[in-house]
Amino acid sequence: MSSSVRGANYHNDSLMIGFSDLRKLSNERPLVITGGRGVFVIDERGRDYIEAVSSFYCAALGFSEQELVEAAIRQMRALPFYPSASHRTVPVVMELAEKLQAIAPMPKARVAFATTGSEANDSLIKFLWYANGYSGKPRRRKVITRYGSYHGGTIAMTALGGGSALHRSFGIPMDDSIFVSHPTGAAPGEGEEAYVDRLAEEVRQAIEKAGPETVGAFFAEPISTAAGWSVPPKGYFQKIKKVCDEYGVRFFLDEVVTGFGRTGHMWGAQAFGVTPDCITSAKGMSSAYQPISAVLMSEDFYAGLEKGSDENGWFAHSGTYHAHPVPAAVALKTLEIYEKRQIVKHVQSLLPLWQKSIKVLEDHPLVATTRNFGLGGAVEFKGPVQNLSHI
Ligand SMILES: Cc1ncc(COP(=O)(O)O)c(C=O)c1O
Question: Does ligand 1 have an atom closer than 6 angstroms to the CB of 253?
Fold first, then answer.
């Protein structure tokens, strides 16, 4: 047992961690994890736990993948840091961009790196406003998002998050956010097709109400962990994309969780048969061994950024740690491993067992229902259910 383990008289007045009860954090020692082995993590008392959600749906290759550790060490020795900005970069970053372009769910994707999922999402909305500003559509700033969704912790992403706890108490500005329903299930007797039509119509009405000339994008997770892994009904994204196309509204997917095989396809976009204008990615991109995220943009969308850059002589957006060479080397190795081990095929091979295992839980008296799609799922317990139709 570690000598740093503290017991009942624990008092913490130095550390603050989010998504926690801060009073409890002062008085009660949090769970302290000191090691990892495969799908297990180990706490300071030596107890091991199966990390059933891969720690925030991140550690796709488990907690002890030595090839990733070695990739980081090699890059640290070769060049531990150099920024990718001001017309400079490093080879590993170029290689990673090429690799992502090759597997992107849209042709000839252009790749911009950031550090976290929130930051990639934030950058994407900033890019949207920029591109629209230089394409004669400066008023197209509003973004349609869904109740229950989660897109990150920056001010802009909190504003686009669909849970009231995220923004009400922080006084987050919401002027550019438009909320529509999450696909949580058809009404009794409605039928799937009619349900999808209703949801697509809701998006149309939202655009009409806001004024089509003010709406820039529709932004959604292919499947939202925050909204309880509600699986979109057949045709949902296609019909919404059709409405977006009609109104010149960009269609963006937040693939921070759903990328790299989680859905049994490389991307959620492919799982649901839709081609987005842009996606964002993080987490599984490096199996989260190093922080790195990316925005993948269609050629057509990127042309708007180039236009603005032509007018200004440069594109005034970057970050010191964007495309940091060490996370980039780890991400590149992660993608190589996914390829070598045929990770998407592997996920597909696990699905029958996973589906059977989660379904069995429905026999439990406390369980109302279960859902699953790809290697993800949710168990809904009997009792009050969170209402996703308001914020
Ligand atoms: C769908 C989705 N988007 C964005 C984010 C934010 O990513 P990060 O925590 O890396 O900022 C998360 C985090 O869990 C997420 O689940």
Answer: no
Q: How far apart are the first and last CA of the chain?
A: 45
C-alpha 127 – ligand 1 centre gap (Å): 18
At the second CATH level, the architecture of 1-63 is Alpha-Beta Complex (3.90)
* 284 touches ligand 1 (CB under 6 Å): no
Mean pLDDT of the chain: 95
pLDDT of residue 384: 72
Å from CA of 171 to ligand 1 middle: 20
Q: Is the pLDDT of residue 3 over 50?
A: no
Beta carbon of 115 within 6 Å of any ligand 1 atom: no
* pTM for this model (two decimals): 0.96
Q: Where are the chain's structural domains?
A: 1-63, 67-340
Please give the helix or strand (H or E) that residue 130 lies within, else none: helix 117-133
Residue 50 CA to ligand 1 centre (angstroms): 22
CB 297 within 8 A of CB 110: yes
Predicted local distance difference test score (pLDDT) of residue 388: 63
Q: How many CB atoms lie within 10 A of CB 18?
A: 6
The Cα angle at residue 87 between residues 85 and 91, in degrees rounded to 5 = 80
pLDDT (mean) for 297-326: 98
CB 101 within 8 A of CB 111: yes
For residue 304 and ligand 1, the question of a CB distance below 6 A is answered with no
Fold (topology level) of 67-340: Aspartate Aminotransferase; domain 2 (3.40.640)
Band of the pLDDT at 11, cuts 50, 70, 90?
A: confident
Which pLDDT score is estimated for 252?
98
CA dihedral sign, ordered 103, 104, 109, 113: negative
β strands within 159-207, DSSP E: 177-180
pLDDT of residue 6: 67
The encoded tokens of residue 29 equal 């020692």
